[in-house]
Request: fold
Amino acid sequence: MVKEIERAGIPVVHMCTIVPISLTVGANRIVPTIAIPHPLGNPSLSIEEEKEIRRKLLTRALKALETEVTEQTVFEK
Amino acid sequence: MKWASINLVQDRKEEKIMLKVVHYINQFFANVGGEEMAHIPAEVREGVVGPGLAFQQAFKDEAEIVATIICGDSYFNENMDEAKNTIIEMVKKYNPDLFIAGPAFNAGRYGVACGAISKTVKDELNIPVITGMYVENPGADMFKNDIYIVSTKNSAAGMRDAVKKMAPLGLKLAKGEKIGASIEEGYIPSGKRVNFFEKERGSTRAVKMLLAKLNNKEFETEFPMPDFDRVPPNPAIKDITKAKIALVTSGGIVPKGNPDHIESSSASKYGKYDIEGVMDLTEETYQTAHGGYDPVYANLDPDRVLPVDIMREFEKEGKIGSLHRYFYTTVGNGTAVKSAKGFAEKYVKELIADGVDAVILTST
Reply:
């Protein structure tokens, strides 16, 4: 799906936990996430701490969308 | 005395050397549990567990599965280095002649685990390895050039067929015998060329292929073109504070009750849902339809997969232009690549028509 969205001309950032799969599939902008069953959260934290993590990851995703890339890029920070 | 010594030599000759095999499987095939147990770290058990039984029967008295290593799929993929190190130590102890992983069929995380651990065992311990999976499993593309991956069906219903191909190829590898071409042995082509004689000559095969093509029947090319389906990245968003951003997920988030009945695996459809005025996804209003991961965390707070709450916050603070009124969702669990491609081809037209500037796509 990532690739078809990209192919149609819309920049897309893929947020996922297993980065090697995303690379194989062909995503160009990748943001690694927390865990498979809760990519954008962490149930062992408080709700506020969890939101903070989500905020941080989504800020990174926005940054990825604002960054020119020429090849597959993983935004680790 | 002379006779006796001759007998002794003959006896020894008849004594077969039993090859030692270590088998790797996930929590599901070990009957430990489903997704709720996918977080368990690696453990080792003596002898055969689960699908090992079918392999043991196929090996007859040529090989013996001495140990089975069991590891949760999520655990392996989320802690790959640690899991690999632990499992390597476990395998080392048995010093096997062959390492078998899976088969994983179309289970993505299991396929990646089977491929990754097999490659590590081969590279670090220099032990022959074999695994099996469906050709669309992401693990197949990742590891087909490193190890022998037998091509299997896309579900565990193909176990018998998989074992029938994996067991003899495994024995050949363990004995150091010559391995034939992928088409003969049943593994996924690894990009290496092997010479062999075809039964029919080239001209006969070419004419047959041409006839099939003319009749719109299926035929298999003998010279497949490499599949480089890469899409170049689109230019970056100039000003994200003005951009309309849509959320898309393969994590199966749907309104409570899953009104469109999106399947928990091998999804045949996607959903499009209006989130106008929705500030937060809650346990009461949304859930996941995904059957390929433990749903507890996503059901308690679906924002953990589809982050509507923070996107609303960003919208209010002016960090983004706006959050698109609809989100698109499907279940990425053994779903055919062709289906997923088809879904996206369809809804991306709507995204464009609706003036969406960028997409955040989350996966589990």
Q: What stands out?
A: The first strand of chain A starts at residue 12 and ends at 16.
